[in-house]
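All the exercises in this workshop are built on plain-text protein records. Instead of coordinates, the fold is spelled out as a row of discrete tokens. Once this layout is familiar, the rest of the handout is easier to follow. The record below serves as our worked example for the rest of this section.
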Amino acid sequence: MGKPVAASHSQVNDIKKTFLTIGVAIIAVCCLGGVNAGLVLAGSKTCGSFFLRNSQGDVINPLTGENADQPFSSRKTCGACHDYDLITKGFHFQQGWEKISDTYDKKMPWVLSDGMMGKH
């Protein structure tokens, strides 16, 4: 196993921004995808307040710093109330994973699918 390499402050900030963006997207999917979307749009069923949770189920609270360096777990955060297996089959969760290919776009070879998979 290789020697760990320290990330720069800029890299850490980029990683945090990426996790925040992914987190917001997954939370939106959890709120809409785990329940009947028609009911959510009608306003009769929405997600109440909740905390993001890490893979151990511990609360992540960036305002207080509690586990703020931990990645969130959609299984522990959304799966507590929603059908996690159903959510993970949706496009917004997969983000093009089923279409990923090294030859997806010949003009832009760094783009591997039509989703976010392989772009960052």
Notes: Residues 9-33 form the longest helix (25 residues). The radius of gyration is 17 Å.
